[in-house]
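Re: the 130-residue chain
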Amino acid sequence: MKKVILASLLVMMSAGVSAEEGGYKAGDTPPPQHKQDAGYKGSEDTGQTHIDQIRDFRQGGYVTLEGYIVKKEQGERYQFRDNTGTLPIIAPKKTFGGKTYTAEDKVRVSGKVQGKGHKTTLHVTQIEEP
């Protein structure tokens, strides 16, 4: 009985360790900008926020964008792109939720807007599949 409990604990602990993995894998190329879809699937009245719109948002405003992480710059800094442009994002490892994404994977990023105009950055709190 003790062996079964010990084995169960080891399996649960190893699952937690693998959940910390994930991130961004460079090398793939995203689809061209004009091939990206806009909008959420489901509700007709839900609007899609785009990069060109958030450059004038208030500091600390919370937004969700859909697009592609196209490049890792350094540390937790990445380049994010949707069909309206590119935006630097800061995404800590934990925001990937243990998954690894490439430039070909469409993702939904949520976070807080920092800066104005061309100095706008998104501090990501969550990354998921749309």
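The CA atoms of residues 17 and 93 lie 13 Å apart.
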